[in-house]
Amino acid sequence: MHSGSRPLRTRFAPSPTGDLHLGSAWTALASWALARASGGITILRVEDVDTPRVVPGSAARIATDLAWLGLEWDEGPDEGGTHAPYIQSARSEIYDDALRKLEAAGLTYLCDCSRAEIARVASAPHAGEEMVYPGTCRHSPPDRELKRAPAIRLRVPDHTRISFVDRLRGPNEQHVDVSVGDFVLRRGDGVYAYQLVVAVDDALMNVSDVVRGVDLLGSTARQILLMRMLGFGDRVPSYTHVPLVVAPGGERLAKRTQGATVRELRERGVQAEEVVGHLAHGLGLVKGRARDMTASDVAKALVPPEEWRKDAWPIPAHWQ
Ligand code: GLU
């Protein structure tokens, strides 16, 4: 099914900030099945760099819920593997190295702007919560007295136009300098930015196919840009951005939405095969009428990502 010549490797990369949400369970199932369908490798990577948001114990709870769904991993925190460690908080030296490479190439600068300063000068807030950085610190003398612990930003070259083909959504193009601007690689508090760690890890772990939620579609160009700048241009994966899972009425699944987590359904007595079957059918991973399925049934009957569902999927009303 994979068109390239690389061995197929997919990853599921949860942030341990709470219990496994149905939306995440779906991306886990889809990326797992994509690898299993053609004898590829499945990777579990715990994305816990944003320590203030991490909920202690939730990585273990997520692992339990994934195992209950029948998803097991060839490489991961418990399984090990040639690209260990698979927990981002244990990979800071790897990110330090990547940042040093970019610094040495003159591609970074220190930024001591506050959020409020950026907001005042930024143009209209862009796509959702994102703000285009106006470049204030790009031209400031590097030896100036800093107002606060500085963030490190990427100097995005003018006319940076990144194109890629999403397997479900088709061709995409982003002018990164215009629509994002010089984005943060490391925050003032020392936390590495999601864009950097994901780009580095997907490249170093040799991930061939990224399957994740459509809310991250707008991050893909930044990650491809970083991979190219770091010399991993030949390792850019193919991307499939799957739709969001929503409440039966179409609203966003909030933490308090009943039936929004795998754990809650299990505790209510719903069987794993029912959860897997509904997710697989609802989201078009398999054809035919809804029926209970195991994860390996899904892998055997998987249709190509080009044919998966594109619109948001409301969870069944009886799970509420
Ligand atoms: N860790 C991210 C999240 O849970 C997902 C990262 C990705 O798939 O690129 O939102």
UniProtKB/TrEMBL annotation:
Placement of sequence motif 'KMSKS' region: 252-256
Gene Ontology terms for molecular function: ATP binding; glutamate-tRNA ligase activity; zinc ion binding
Keyword Protein biosynthesis attached: yes
Positions of L-glutamate binding: 11-15, 47, 194, 212
Coiled-coil ranges (or none): none
GO biological process assignments: glutamyl-tRNA aminoacylation; tRNA modification
InterPro entries per the UniProt record, alphabetical: Glu-Q_tRNA(Asp)_Synthase, Glu/Gln-tRNA-synth, Glu/Gln-tRNA-synth_Ib_cat-dom, GluQ/Sye, Rossmann-like_a/b/a_fold
Keyword terms: Aminoacyl-tRNA synthetase, ATP-binding, Ligase, Metal-binding, Nucleotide-binding, Protein biosynthesis, Zinc
GO cellular component: cytosol
Domain of life: Bacteria
Leader sequence segment: none
Keyword Ligase: yes
Membrane-spanning segments: none
Note on how the cofactor is bound: Binds 1 zinc ion per subunit.
Residue ranges annotated as motif 'HIGH' region: 14-24
Family: Belongs to the class-I aminoacyl-tRNA synthetase family. GluQ subfamily.
Function (record text): Catalyzes the tRNA-independent activation of glutamate in presence of ATP and the subsequent transfer of glutamate onto a tRNA(Asp). Glutamate is transferred on the 2-amino-5-(4,5-dihydroxy-2-cyclopenten-1-yl) moiety of the queuosine in the wobble position of the QUC anticodon.
Protein's name in the database: Glutamyl-Q tRNA(Asp) synthetase
